[in-house]
Amino acid sequence: WLKYAEMEMKHKFINHARNVWERAIYYLPRVDQFWYKYSYMEEMIGEYTKAREIFERWMEWNPEENAWTAFLKFEERMGEVENCRRVMYRYLEAHPRLKTYLKVAKYEEKNKNKKSARELYERTL
Length: 125
What we know:
By secondary structure, the chain is mostly helical. It is built from 8 helices and no strands. The chain has helices at 2-10, 14-27, 32-44, 48-59, 65-78, 81-94, 98-110, 114-124. The termini are far apart. 24% of the residues are buried.
C-alpha cells in the first residue's frame, strides 16, 4: 500500500493516492503509518481541512498516544488553539493516565490558563 500510494504522489496523481490511502485505512485501520502518511500528504498539498478530517476519523479508532500527539502538533501548526484544547481533552478521555493529565495540565499552563491547569493538577492527585 505504501509504495503504491507514494508512487501516485510522486507522479502528482493526488486523487489516485487518496483512493489508495482510503482503501488502506479501510482494510487496515490499526496500521498507524497509513493514517500518518495520508494526513501528511493532505497537509503538504495545503488541504488542511481534509487533513483534520483524516485525524478525526483516526481518533475514532482510539489509537495510541503517538497518534494523539501528531494530531495535537498538527493543530498547533495550524494555530488553532481551541481545536488543540478540544483534542487535548479528548486525548485525556481516551487515555486517563497520570502522564496524560500532566501533559494536559502543562499545555494549559503554557497557554496561560492557570485555573484549568490547577484543576487538572488537583484531579491528578
